[in-house]
Design a protein that fits this description.
single chain, Arc Repressor Mutant, subunit A, 5-stranded antiparallel beta sheet, 8 helices, 240 residues, 2 domains, alpha+beta, binds flavin mononucleotide, Beta-Lactamase
């Protein structure tokens, strides 16, 4: 039976929940109290984004320190230095994920995927349909550039907030149907930025399946801002 008080993080690296200790190759890793507190929080949320503000309040809870993003960043880098084998990934917008890394030799894309997607010029959103109401679990920097939303504004929400009250769109019905049937689709949508500006977007939504089980794991949405194109078409039409 699996021991629930121990969480395997990666090869030869375990977190012992009750004692808040990290075991590396059978030895207790030397960590400071703050590093342990942070790791405890990250283990509780393993493979899920944790906001730096939550990290801050968890770690410095009783010290009356003022919220400071830099101190969180420094603490994370001190852990990376102390235990390089652990994978803590920075997400755009000030969240971090502790990834549980497979113990098999692993050349897969997935452990690095968030870092790679972060640098894409296309706005990208990933949702998790295995959580109630299919919430966003990741957005990249280009998504923030295009719509103005930060990760803390949108992680945990369903994408429907993006069309605000502009419900009367045929493409929404098509999109709903594709999501239900788990088939890829490209649609044009009227979305709205954080500042309420209309952003006409083409979004391609693809179901991402688990390689082993074939079950739906994520939805990936890739956006193109088509407002330039639409303005051009409008101008041409006006001239004809
Ligand atoms: C990856 C992904 C991206 C999506 N992008 C948008 C979007 O940009 N705008 C939007 O209104 N809905 C988007 N949706 C669809 C919404 O989640 C929702 O299904 C749709 O807005 C219809 O709303 P309803 O579920 O209330 O019927 C997206 C869904 C997924 C899985």
């Amino acid at each position: 039976m699996e021991n629930k008080t121990i969480v395997k993080l990666t090869r030869n690296c375990y977190w012992h929940i009750e004692s808040s200790n990290l075991l590396l190759n059978g030895q207790e890793a030397k960590l400071t109290a703050s590093q342990k507190k942070l790791l405890g929080l990250m283990v509780k949320n393993i493979n899920k984004p944790v906001l730096n503000v939550n990290i801050f309040f968890e770690v410095w809870e009783n010290l009356n320190k003022e919220y400071n993003e830099k101190s969180v960043r420094n603490l994370i880098s001190s852990i990376r230095k102390a235990v390089p084998i652990i994978s803590i990934i920075n997400l755009y917008g000030g969240s971090y994920i502790l990834r549980q890394v497979s113990s098999e030799p692993n050349y897969e894309f997935k452990d690095y995927s968030f870092e790679i997607l972060d640098q894409s010029k296309n706005a990208i959103v990933i949702t998790n349909p295995n959580i109630d109401d299919n919430p966003i679990i990741y957005i990249n920097g280009s998504f923030t550039n295009l719509f103005g939303y930060l990760a803390e504004d949108v992680v945990g929400k369903n994408c429907r907030f993006m069309h605000k009250n502009d419900n009367d769109q045929l493409s929404l019905e098509e999109l709903r149907l594709s999501l239900r049937n788990e088939i890829p689709i490209t649609v044009n949508l009227r979305n709205y930025a954080k500042n309420n500006q209309l952003i006409c977007t083409e979004v391609t939504v693809s179901p991402i399946l688990d390689k082993n089980s074939g079950k739906l794991k994520y939805f990936l949405g890739i956006y193109t801002d088509v407002i330039m194109l639409q303005t051009l078409v409008k101008q041409i039409k006006e001239r004809i």
